[in-house]
Design goal:
Elements lengths: L2 H11 E2 L1 H10 L4 E5 L5 H4 L1 E3 L3 E2 L5 H4 L8 E5 L7 H11 L3 E5 L2 H7 L4 E3 L1
Parallel strand pairs: 1-6, 2-4, 2-5, 5-6
Antiparallel strand pairs: 3-7
């Protein structure tokens, strides 16, 4: 894979928080945010508003809870976390359309976008 192909694939498979807000306003029924962080609520404390929680370590057993007619947008902690990427692989292998939210919940909170307490 050359550099151009790498960056093209990256852009096609991720959404920044700003991109997500824009496309979800244009097509509100197209996307479903899924929090895939593996941690108890007292460590997570908050999630992105309207996201559902399915920890990455439970995803295979709970995959039937997700609709196949929506693009699943997975997120985890931050840019250093790979739980969203692992979850995306699982979802793709099971026939889902999926994107990763760049920067995870840390980027979302930095931009002061809507969150909900757990």
């Amino acid at each position: 894979m050359n550099s151009n192909d790498f960056f093209q694939a990256r852009v096609e498979n991720t959404l920044s928080p700003m991109d997500f807000m824009q496309v979800s306003k244009q097509q509100p029924d197209k996307f479903l945010l899924v929090d895939v962080r593996n941690a108890p609520a007292h460590l997570k404390k908050v999630k992105i508003s309207n996201a559902i929680e399915i920890p990455q370590n439970e995803l295979e057993n709970r995959i039937s809870e997700l609709p196949k007619d929506k693009t699943i947008v997975v997120y985890c902690w931050d840019v250093w976390c790979n739980l969203a990427a692992k979850s995306a692989i699982t979802l793709l292998k099971n026939g889902f359309s999926v994107k990763e939210l760049s920067g995870g919940i840390a980027a979302w909170q930095t931009m002061k976008l809507p969150i909900a307490d757990l």
